[in-house]
Specification:
The chain folds into 2 domains: about 150 residues, Fructose-1,6-Bisphosphatase, Chain A, domain 1 (2-Layer Sandwich); about 120 residues, D-Maltodextrin-Binding Protein, domain 2, CATH 3.40.190.80. It is globular. Helices cover about 35% and strands about 20% of the residues. The chain is of the alpha+beta class.
């Protein structure tokens, strides 16, 4: 039967094609073949285990095409951050409901607590981030800025909602944000007691446990549910947020206070709350959450509208539709 040359003629046929100019065209490569990658030493193996990544095989090819590199870096960042969050959450849960006498202390007042878990979680997160991204700076609630990076840094709150954590309430969270050139590029909030992991990367949307989330569609302020907090009271500052609270209370459906700004922001992104406002907050309270809200379709500003919500110490996060109405009501309360 026709159609197949004998196996013994395959080599000869190939030689004939080459001699006759019938060379098969080769595909263009996106990058040149690099030299073989040597097997990583034992120290690198240990570092890979710390970041939750598998070792690079000697046969692995590392591409240099810019598009491919960006995709690899994006995947690496997410993989590392999610791995850190799960391990940090497991550490929190070992202490949750089992804190002993002496493991809860006051920082600035009886309203401002810190536990032994706060320090241990921050140490774990810093160690893992340092191993995976040694060129990044580290800035945490408990340690302050411990390392300056080369243009990028991570902002970490090991346990936001420490009072909740110390009293057995489930609304506490780990918050990690990546900041570069003054902009938040990645945000993660993890509530281990509820196993709710919120994640966002600028320009790529927001997710809860890997599923996309969106802010609420609520457009009527009278039907809205708004979250708030009183960090100003915890810090002993005057005036406090009660004038705003009182002014809004009669103009919306209801107000809620969960005791953790990161959770409030995550729940705005998820569409549970229609808005959140608070004053006297720190960067680690809001950095991750504001990106998650924005990537879920919401809007985040300071009370004045144009001020910086990360470092301005006042934040208003909404589904976008209610933003200007609520901002105007807050301004009215402040001026009254």
């Amino acid at each position: 039967m026709g159609g197949h040359a004998p196996l013994g003629d395959e080599k000869g046929g190939r030689t004939a094609r080459l001699a006759g100019g019938g060379r098969r065209p080769r595909r263009a490569r996106l990058w040149p073949d690099p030299a073989p990658v040597a097997a990583p030493p034992a120290a690198a193996e240990a570092g890979n285990r710390q970041t939750g990544l598998t070792s690079i095989r000697p046969s692995a090819i590392v591409p240099t095409h810019p598009i491919v590199l960006r995709r690899l870096k994006r995947g690496l960042m997410k993989t590392v951050l999610l791995s850190i969050a799960r391990d940090a959450g497991a550490l929190m849960l070992r202490y949750f409901g089992h804190l002993r006498e002496g493991q809860v202390k006051m920082k600035t007042s009886t309203k401002d607590l810190v536990t032994v878990a706060d320090g241990e979680v921050e140490s774990l997160v810093f160690e893992r981030l340092r191993a995976a991204f040694p060129d990044h700076g580290l800035y945490g609630e408990e340690s302050g800025e411990v390392e300056k990076g080369h243009g990028a840094r991570f902002i970490v709150d090991p346990i936001d909602g420490t009072v909740n954590f110390a009293h057995g309430l489930q609304h506490f969270a780990l918050s990690i944000a990546r900041e570069e050139s003054g902009a938040i590029t990645h945000g993660l909030i993890y509530l281990p007691a509820l196993d709710e992991l919120f994640y966002a990367e600028r320009g790529r949307g927001a997710t809860l446990n890997e599923r996309p989330i969106r802010v609420s569609p609520q457009a009527n302020v009278a039907d809205s549910v708004v979250a708030t907090g009183f960090a100003c009271v915890r810090a002993g500052l005057k005036p406090d947020g009660l004038p705003i609270f009182n002014h809004l209370m009669y103009r919306i459906r209801d107000l809620r206070r969960l005791g953790a700004a990161t959770v409030d922001l995550a729940y705005v992104a998820r569409g549970i709350f229609d808005a959140f406002y608070e004053m006297e907050l720190s960067p680690w309270d809001v950095a991750a959450g504001l990106l998650i809200v924005e990537e879920a379709g919401g809007r985040v500003t300071g009370f004045a509208g144009a001020d910086d919500p990360v470092y301005g110490r006042k934040i208003l996060a909404t589904n976008g539709r209610l933003h200007e109405t609520l901002r105007r009501l807050i301004e009215e309360a402040i001026k009254s």
